[in-house]
Design brief:
This protein has helices at residues 2-16, 22-27, 29-32, 51-57, 69-75, 89-92, 109-120, 132-141, and strands at 48-49, 62-65, 82-83, 101-104, 127-129. It is of the alpha/beta class.
Length: 143
Amino acid sequence: GINAEYGKQWYQRRVRAPRHNTTCHMLSPLCSTRYLSSVPDPPDYNVNLAPLELSEILDKCNIIDVRQPEELIADGVIPGAVNIPLGELPGRIENLPDENAVFICRSGIRSLKAISLALQAGFDEPRHLQGGMMAWNETFHNK
């Protein structure tokens, strides 16, 4: 029936659609734009920070980790980061400092969504850790 046909179409789209791979979103600033499409005025600056770049300015940043609490245990944390899961961010974003905000997550996708929320809240050039904690751990902990 209709449900079977819909399921078949969904499966075909999932199988045939090109997947957004880790290399792409970790290395290309252009890939960031698809996640910031809901912003009325997309950013005209590079939102990406590589792990080494972030480590050099860590003491000047307000780091907001948008992962779930259990992910912090599994993947570690960046010193000084404040944990606010992405689902809670809209209700708490007004209370965060808007200067030098850097969002982090596991792979860099949720942090891009957080940038979108921050821009809508009037933040001044929020950025994110490109590749997330996966890239951080690979760079500094060989994980």
